[in-house]
Amino acid sequence: MPDQFIKAMIPLVSCITDEYWKPVIEAASPEETAMIDERMKDYESDPSSFISLSDIQ
């Protein structure tokens, strides 16, 4: 492909990738909030039952 076509495509590709990688963060649903609260209670009652992320990697 000639360089002139590549140079012409760079703004288009840049625009597409910028839009694609913008995350959409939504508020947690009541069910998700309840699950989070339940896991937090589990952790608070027995932290040793959880594996830290640093131990996994």
Overview of the molecule:
The longest helix is centred in the first third of the chain and has 18 residues, at 3-20. This protein is an all-alpha fold. The protein contains three helices and no strands. It is elongated.
Supply the key terms.
57 residues; mainly alpha; 3 helices
Structural class: mainly alpha
DSSP summary: helix tally: 3
Strand fraction = under 5%
C-alpha geometry: elongated
Outline:
The protein is mainly alpha-helical and 57 residues long.
Topology:
Blueprint: H1 3-20, H2 30-45, H3 53-56
